[in-house]
Design brief:
This protein has 86 residues and is mainly alpha-helical. It is built from 3 helices and no strands.
């Protein structure tokens, strides 16, 4: 196993824990009436969603997941701007 595939495997493993951890944490924060922190947790989860949806598109042609992730990331970023900067 070369160095690149070891790094990719490590990132895959981290992503498998970060995706549900950050996304569920964001939902919990939002439901506890802390939407500004829920948005931050969601934005932290987005690189992992982007990576996973990119892989799903490349390996299985699941372009809808990638498109949804890009739109969701944009909406989340706009929510952060709304809560923290406006």
């Amino acid at each position: 196993m070369n160095d690149t595939s070891k790094k990719e495997k490590l990132f895959n493993n981290v992503a498998q824990f970060a995706l549900p951890g950050l996304t569920i944490g964001a939902q919990i924060a939002t439901s506890l009436k802390f939407p500004q922190y829920g948005l931050i947790l969601n934005l932290l989860a987005q690189p992992f969603w982007m990576y996973s949806s990119w892989k799903a598109w490349k390996q299985a042609g699941q372009i809808g997941i990638l498109i949804t992730t890009i739109i969701f990331t944009t909406i989340t970023a706009l929510g952060i701007i709304n809560y923290w900067f406006l």
